[in-house]
Design brief:
The structure is a single chain. The chain is α/β, with parallel strands linked by helices. It has 2 domains: 59 residues, DNA polymerase, domain 1; 268 residues, Alpha-Beta Barrel (TIM Barrel), CATH 3.20.20.70. Helix content is 31%, strand content 21%. The strands form 3 sheets. Strands 3, 4, 5, 6, 9, 10, 11, 12, 13, 14 and 15 form an 11-stranded mixed sheet that branches. The protein has a two-stranded parallel ribbon with strand order 1-2. The longest helix has 13 residues. The mean pLDDT is 92.
Length: 346
Amino acid sequence: MQKDKVCTPLIGMTLEQLRVVASECGLPSFAAKQIARWLYVKRVTDIDAMTDLSLRGRESLKSCYIVGREAPKAEAASADGTVKYLFEGMGGRDIEAVFIPDRDRATLCVSSQAGCRMECTFCMTGRQGFHGSLPASAIINQVLSIPRSEDLTNIVFMGMGEPLDNMEALLPAIEVLTAPWGLAWSPKRITVSSIGHLKHLRELLDRTKVHVAISLHSPFASEREGLMPVEKAFPMRDVVALLRQYDFSHQRRLSFEYIIWRGVNDDIRHADALACLLRGLDCRVNLIRFHAIPDSPLRPVPEHSMIAFRDRLNEAGITATIRASRGEDIQAACGMLAGKARPQAE
């Protein structure tokens, strides 16, 4: 018995890619914009809904393509209003996206990979290993398919995976989010987080105008390497040197993420070294509370230590804030996303 044909999702495709699709299906070139409008403005879930395409054109599209929208498989709601959604992932591992409402803002934290290659010791995603990079369709599906999709004001690529380790999908996804034929968002509504993947960081900075957040966590190379093995491949001093070549004084924002652990990176010595490393760079430091994960010796610091660290940085001329913690009760907070292993088919 012949297996069902696997069709390619249309969501996540750029206008140029849709032009290729139109050509393959015998449609005129302008049909690409029509398809994009149905996908990203009208947000249809079925090709038959694209009524300004000819019936023959729709049938031709359906022979090889699907819209590709898939609803979340499950969801969990936090007491603070945060909602975590489970989506189909890669390599037998599902992925998670987190919706974070906050007064007049509604942010979605999206995943770019199932698991992660970076092996950060404090992150549940990194500890599960790498299961595959998501295609652009799976990234955009997270944005389009949550129940409150049309309420979103911001997107942060801070979910599962290292976004710059998946540039083949990240850049088309950003194009879909920001292009006038796509969702037409301002790049100021999008933040991409990275461990400082030097190989692709310059490309992101040159080809997009999105905000950038760099995971730092220690100003001392040897200590950071113990927490984040990628320090050996991408030293933070080299990352900062690259960032100094760009202007962050206007529309684009640069931030550094700094999780604080008791007895690890929480003292005045660390604050002063961090201020020295970043001095003269137009940026802010987001101080993040650690959320304990299983089998980890790392522990959070008391509130007064967070405040003292923040104040020390501010006194040194580095803008620092303490990020509000959201969704810890449903394991949706920073570093807690782990997805779910799917049972193997018999």
